[in-house]
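hiii so um. not sure if this is the right channel but i have a protein structure encoded as tokens and i wanna go backwards to a sequence. like what aa goes where. can anyone help
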């Protein structure tokens, strides 16, 4: 009679995991189902964490893009201001407001120290010689009293005269 030997120790534990001819197979299926459920749950939690990190990065990217657009707009506005202030007519108008007049004929020094050309002093221009320069809207809106109050010193306003009067340049 063939009787099965009784298993002991590790062999007995392993034999319980595998279904035998008399068992319904529940003992071997339970650890596999538990493993599959744990893997699926861990995968879902991992996807949730990854999705949260991506959406947080997307919000940061939107904020940075908005900041970049604002800074680009500000840079363009500042560049327009620089271009407006460095235009030749704006420089001429500002120089006239500061009391400057166009210079006369220049003289040059050669490498040997000789003066080439005949220098002449700058002369005050009459109102007839001064070309008309249109002012930007921001300067037209301010009255001369506002300009004086902001600058703290009186603004130099050229007075029209019919005859040119020579002026002396300070420091010469």
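sure thing!! here u go:
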């Amino acid at each position: 009679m063939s009787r099965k030997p009784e298993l002991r120790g590790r062999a007995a534990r392993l034999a319980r995991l595998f279904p035998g001819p008399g068992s319904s197979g529940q003992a071997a299926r339970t650890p596999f189902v538990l493993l599959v459920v744990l893997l699926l749950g861990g995968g879902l939690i991992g996807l949730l964490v990854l999705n949260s990190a991506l959406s947080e990065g997307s919000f940061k990217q939107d904020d940075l893009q908005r900041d970049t657009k604002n800074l680009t707009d500000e840079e363009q506005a500042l560049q327009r201001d620089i271009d407006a202030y460095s235009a030749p007519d704006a420089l001429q108008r500002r120089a006239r407001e500061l009391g400057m007049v166009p210079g006369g004929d220049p003289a040059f020094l050669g490498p040997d120290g000789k003066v080439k050309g005949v220098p002449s002093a700058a002369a005050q221009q009459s109102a007839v010689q001064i070309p008309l320069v249109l002012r930007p809207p921001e300067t037209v809106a301010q009255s001369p009293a506002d300009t004086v109050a902001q600058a703290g010193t009186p603004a130099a306003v050229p007075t029209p005269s019919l005859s040119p009067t020579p002026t002396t340049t300070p420091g010469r």
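oh and The chain has a mean pLDDT of 76.
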